[in-house]
Every structure is written in structure tokens, then in C-alpha cells.
Amino acid sequence: PDESSAQGEQSGDGYELLNREINRIYQIVKGFVEEEGLGADVRLRTDRRGVIIDISDNILFDPGEAKLKSDSRILLIVAFDNNIIVEGHTDNVPINRSVFPTNWELSVNRATTVVRYFVEERNIAPNRLSAAGYGEYRPVVPNDTSENKALNRRVNILIEATLEGGVQ
Question: Phi and psi at residue 39, in whole multiples of 5°?
Fold first, then answer.
């Protein structure tokens, strides 16, 4: 066999291994969500990066706030060795607060609040965490109803899939 077909086979094997890792993480998180009865406020999905946990903002934050609610049952996470990206999202309703001039600042602040929680309360190594805020610019559904706007106000926790990942 020539070199290019051998590399293609290796690449195919890598995708299969990565898909198995994504599925393994998904099953563990799904079990946790079901066990904790969080299905109404948490949705799971996967993409090429890993497993994404969509958490409704109302279980973590009061409207327009970036401070975690004291009674928020924040999650998780079954402690994974994988890197974790926390992504903040909002709906498209302009925020009218001097603390957060735009939804972008609110989404970034919410993401970093969750990252700090993971570091300070869950003892997750800071070098495994990052935060991103997308404001209203990555909606999962159109912002055309109050129900859809509620779906777009969320914090995503992305557990990155790697071939070296594992459960602690």
C-alpha cells in the first residue's frame, strides 16, 4: 500500500477512537443528569469537539446577573481529565445595566463565574479550563418567542474529547 492510503486508515482509526471517547463521555454525563433529575434544565449534545452540556441560565443565575445563585445545583461534573470550555450565551434582548453594557459582557462574565466555581469549589486544575462569551450571536433557535429566548440563554460546558481523556 502507498503512504497516503496508510495515513488515511490511521486518520479513520483516529476518528473512530475519538467518536468512542465522545460517546463514553456522553454516557457518563447522561447518567449523572438522569440520576440528579436535571433533565428539565440540562440538555446534552455532541459535536466534533466533544460533549456539550447546555444548562438553562435560570438555574444558575438571576436575570441580568453573573453571580451564581446560592441554591444553584451546579453541576457536575463527574470529574474528567479532559479540558473544559465554559461558554456563555444570551438571547437578543438588549441588557440595560451599567455593569454589563452589552449581552457580550454578561455572557463572558457568566462563563468566567462558572470557571471560577470549578477552580475554587470543585478544585479543577485551572490549566484545564477556559471561558468564552458569545452573547446573542450563537443562538440554538431563533429569538422569536419567549420560549426560544429562554433556550438561547444558557451556559454550555464543553468537555473536550481527546484520545488521552479519562475519568478521575
Answer: -55, -30
Contacts with 111 (C-beta within 8 Å, 6 or more apart), sequence order = 86, 87, 88, 131, 132, 133, 155
DSSP three-state, residue 98 = coil
Q: How far is CA 151 from CA 6, 16, 35, 96, 168, in A?
A: 44, 31, 22, 20, 31
Beta bridge pairs of residue 130: 85
**How does strand 154-160 pair with strand 50-56?**
antiparallel
Rounded Cα distance, 7 and 4, in Å: 5
Residue 56 forms beta bridges with which residues? 154
**Contact residues for 77 (Cβ-Cβ < 8 A; gap 6+):** 29, 32, 53, 84, 118, 122, 157, 159
In terms of C-beta density within 10 A (0-12 exposed, 13-18 middle, 19 or more buried), how is residue 10 classed?
exposed
pLDDT digits (tens, 9 = 90+) for 49-73: 999 999 988 889 988 899 998 777 5
**Is the pTM above the cut of 0.90?**
no
Q: How far apart are CA 151 and CA 55, in angstroms?
A: 9
Query: Coil, strand or helix: which one is 22?
Result: helix
